[in-house]
Amino acid sequence: MAAPRFFVDVGSPYAWLAAERVERVVGAVVWEPVLLGAVFAARGFGSWSLTRERDAGIAEVERRAALHGLGPVRWPEPWPGNMLLAMRCAVAADERGVGRAFLLAALRAGFVEGRDLSDPAAVADAASTAGVEGDELLAAASTPAVKAALKERTERAIALGVRGVPTVVVGDEAFWGDDRLDDAARALRV
Question: Which residues of the chain have pLDDT under 50?
Answer without folding.
Answer: none
